[in-house]
Amino acid sequence: MRARKLFTAVDTHTEGMPTRVVTAGFPPLPGRTMLERSHHVATTLDGWRRLLMYEPRGHQAMSGAILTPPIRDDADLGVVYIEVTGCLPMCGHGTIGAVTAAIETGLVDVAEPTTTVRLDTPAGLVVATATVEAGQCRSVTLTNVPAFLAIQDAVLQVSGWGAGGPTQVTVDVAFGGNFYVICPADALGLSIDPGDASSLIAGGRAVMAAANEQLSIVHPAEPAISGTHHVLFTADPTTGAEGLEAAGTVVIDPGYLDRSPCGTGTSARMAQMHARGALGLDQPLVHTSIINSGFTGRLVGETTVGGTAAVIPTITGRAWITALNQLVLDPTDPYPEGFLIA
Ligand code: PYC
């Protein structure tokens, strides 16, 4: 075997959604902040991201977390989140996968019954508390960056969906670590059901394109975070045995569904519900995914972000290690950056 490049990774899935936790192979990433490091990966090392995310080593719904030393003194690990489309400021399922991998492979000091891991992410400090039993990480609760409702009741003209001219759809836009266009699935005649997967993807892409064209989506305190790559389709919440339950599915650019309930999407949805008076502080929300896996979300405080009212979300979920991986690039491989079939 000849390797022009070698990466090591701990592959995990969080409630069904993969995270390739990259533990070695990237050079030291320059940058004064994790956002700058993430920008460096996106602009200078993007071929390595594609190699790790695209086929034949990954697939359309692949995502990953590159572990680095932290920049902040108060953090244990730095993380750059990657997916098929590019880099993300924050990723909830990726954080749960990364923390599980770090605990179960000894990358951080482990204490039982709880281990706290502080992550320096491009979106800010994220503190994760894991429940650990006999070395196994049973669940991870992360305190996310503040989430907020950015735009309420925006009317979009959505082209390329349905027969005839553009379809008019009313949506909200909320931030939960990434910006989400939040749209009731029934506004496009769809439901949160695997049988509607291709239509949800097509509808989500059309709504995403309309939102990026017709709305100004910019983080009030960090203008480098702008635009949206994510549409969260929702069903009305119901009251179940565990309290409030809500199904949702996130369509991610270029066109796949998050298999997990999406940590940043759940955070965005809770911020939207709170701003609309539908979710109180400390009230649990069980957010379920397209494969019916769940995160439990909770709002633990109120704050502001650049003058906008915001909430502090926590997300609890589980992840499992699926592989200990050594990924190589042979010098004669004709696809050194992989490929995607649209
Ligand atoms: O869990 O936050 C999340 C996420 C973002 C994109 C895919 N999953």
Gyration radius, rounded: 19 Å
Extended strand count: 19
What's the main sheet like? 19 strands, mixed
Unique ligands: pyrrole-2-carboxylate
Query: What portion of residues belong to β-strands?
Result: 35-45%
- Structural category is alpha+beta
Between the first and last Cα atoms, what is the distance in angstroms? 31 Å
Helicity range = 10-25%
- The stretches of 5 or more residues where confidence is low (pLDDT under 50) are none
The pLDDT mean sits at: 96
In sequence order, what are the helices and strands, one letter per element? Answer: EEHHEEEHEEEEEEHEEEEHEEEE
Shape descriptor: globular
Number of separate helices: 5
Structure description:
The protein has 342 residues and is of the alpha+beta class. The radius of gyration is 19 Å and the shape is globular. The protein has helices at 34-44, 46-53, 92-104, 197-214, 263-275, and strands spanning 5-14, 17-24, 63-68, 77-83, 87-88, 114-121, 124-133, 136-143, 148-158, 167-175, 179-184, 230-234, 238-240, 243-252, 256-257, 285-288, 294-305, 308-317, 319-329. It has a 19-stranded mixed beta sheet that branches. Helix 1 (34-44) packs across helix 2. It starts with a strand and ends in a 13-residue tail after the last strand. Strand 6 (114-121) and strand 7 (124-133) form a beta hairpin. The mean pLDDT is 96. Residues 63, 91-93, 178, 252, 258, 260, 262-264 line the site of pyrrole-2-carboxylate (PYC).
